[in-house]
Amino acid sequence: MTIPFNSAFDLRLLANQSDSTRLIRRSDLERLDIAPEEAVRIALDQTVSEVLVGLDIQSQQLPGNASVRVASEEGNPSVSAGIAIVSHLAGEDSPHGALVAVPRHSMIIVQPVRTRQDLSTVGILEGFARSMFDDAPDACSPLLYWFVDGDAHPIGTEPVAEGGPQLVLSPPLANAANRLPR
């Protein structure tokens, strides 16, 4: 069973079995007399308390003196549920959201957005996420997202004729970028 989380991500409700995971169906919940919303709340609570808060989160330096936080656990598909606790994984208060990539189900990359300067790393993060996605046995998404204002929006760059890449912002992201301190 899949439940929308925000405009970019869905949550999949899985049952852990001894040697694998299995997608939970609505009929499973009906037999247990549990509403889908309640099942998602229970599953997220368990995933956060039993998996996500115990992850080893490493800082990784990027060119240009920026750094990102990488949470991963090889073979653990529940790490991607970290989209539900981005602010915790960011390790700091992030009133302007965070740049997030989930290249593997077993990995999430988070960079808090504090100032407009933090958006200068979008091209680097795009490449990093793509490289982690390309050879992943548990590939999730090659894209970079800006989690801001209660939603997640794809963010990226495009080449321009006059030099380096140019930041591409949808209207909601342009509004968020305009509110950033310099």
Could you characterize what this model shows?
26% of the residues lie in helices and 31% in strands. The protein has 182 residues and is an alpha+beta fold. The strands form 3 sheets. Strands 5-6-8-7-9-10-11 form a 7-stranded antiparallel β-sheet. A two-stranded antiparallel ribbon has the order 1-2. A two-stranded antiparallel ribbon has the order 3-4. The longest helix has 15 residues, at 36-50. It starts with a strand and ends with a helix. The mean pLDDT is 91.
What topology emerges from the helices and strands here?
Layout (H helix, E strand, L loop, with lengths): L1 E3 L5 E3 L1 E3 L4 E3 L2 H7 L3 H15 L6 E5 L5 E6 L13 H5 L7 E7 L2 E6 L9 H13 L9 E5 L2 E10 L2 E6 L2 H8 L4
Antiparallel strand pairs: 1-2, 3-4, 5-6, 6-8, 7-8, 7-9, 9-10, 10-11
